Amino acid sequence: MLSLRENILLGTGSGHVFLIDDSHEKPERIIGRKLSVLLCYLLTAPSEEACREALQQAGICYSKEEIRKLEIYFIKKFPGAFSQGSNEGSQRHGAVAKMRIESGSCQNDRLSFFRLDYPVHLIYVPTWRCNRSCRYCGVPKTRDGEKIPEDLLIERLTEASKKGLQKLDIHGGEPLYYAFEKTEHLVAAMKQAEVKTYVSTKNLVTAEMAERLRKAGLDCIQLSLDTIDTSQAQMLGYPDGYLDFFNRSLENIRRENIPISVNVVVSQENEKGLEKLLTFLKEKNIEMITLSPLRKTDKVGLHEVKEEKKEYLNQKLSKFGMRIPVSEPGQRPICEAGRNGFLILPNGECAFCDFIADLPEFRFGDIKTSTVEEIWNDPKLLELTFPSKERLAEKCRSCEQNEICRSRGFCYVNQDFRGKVKEDRFCLKGWGR
């Protein structure tokens, strides 16, 4: 039978299936309406015979041979997304299984208008507390407030798993040092609900932590390392012994066979040491590495790599098969906020983006009083995702390109918002760069 590869999330919107590459969480491919119906049955049927019977009941007559040909078609048409194998047990695609194929015009026939009918990826921040003082940190330095009860959070997320939620990221703050038991319980609950869980940390992962997280069913731990150069480390705000912490964490996590990824924040302060750092990580046999360009905000004391310099660096990094994302103007969605998912704060309130989660203009809904589905359809979230023309500042409202920008969304980081949406770094005319 047909199954999805580990790095692919899947959701539906206006009768179409969206394949979302988990490495950057933006829509890569839209599958047409007719093929979406067929894919629905291929991914949810436990066997070829069950698939054939289900298709016949739906008035679609396919032989076993035709079903096999269809599977091969999907694998060749969408390379890297599908494989052949059992989809029993671990493969669960609630969004597709419950997909309603509606007649009439389809609103999501352009990638820029992409939005799922139900979120597949949520981010949960159990705490903003952190024992590090990284100079590039852009997360809010706010108090957690009255935290959402653990049992209620698990109830909401378990309910969401039955409708399409496939991935939960847990970060902060420092979740393993200030909210370990809550993180552990949440991972175990999501394992039962067949939702993949990822935890991000910058601190030492002890042997006990790694063992408990493995038993809970954690799918991946993301570590952070931005330099192996001592002088750069001091400039970035790293504590003494940080590299020893990293190496011990690797050892403890690998002993429990938990997959590891490493995130590198790229700034002007560490760009010269990138080749040396990536060589070090490759020698440690770390396959999952992401390069995240610094997002300059008022909270950050470092400097972004200039766009023209990124191209030069990317030529040097090509030997590692990696590149730094470039802020290019265009018609594609600029991030997943409001399209694939949203952020849940320690107190249960929800936010558009962790960089601006401290601003009330970008908060909406509350898990304590609303379901994930109700929050997903909150008018404030919809307005932030696809701002109306009336919400644009005069300069953008009078621009002939504003329809494109409204459909692909705006980056609100660094905007002097004040109720009006202004040009951003992805502006087609370059006004925000």
Structural account:
The chain has 433 residues and is of the alpha/beta class. 33% of the residues lie in helices and 15% in strands. It has 16 helices and 14 strands. The strands form three sheets. The protein has a nine-stranded mixed β-sheet with strand order 11-10-9-8-7-6-12-13-14, covered by helices on one side. A hairpin with a 4-residue loop joins strand 3 and strand 4. About 5% of the residues have low confidence.
Q: What is the CA-atom radius of gyration, in angstroms?
A: 22 Å
Largest sheet: 9 strands, mixed
Summarize the amount of helix as a percent range: 25-40%
* Average residue-wise pLDDT: 81
Give the percentage of residues in beta strands: 15-25%
Stretches where pLDDT is under 50 for at least 5 consecutive residues are: 88-92, 97-111
The secondary structure category is alpha/beta
Strand order of the largest sheet: 11-10-9-8-7-6-12-13-14
Instruction: Give the overall shape.
Output: globular
Separate helix tally: 16
CA-CA gap between termini? 48 Å
- Report the count of strand segments: 14
Order of helices and strands: EEEEHHHEHEHEHHEHEHHEHEHEEEHHHH
In short:
By secondary structure, the chain is an alpha/beta fold.
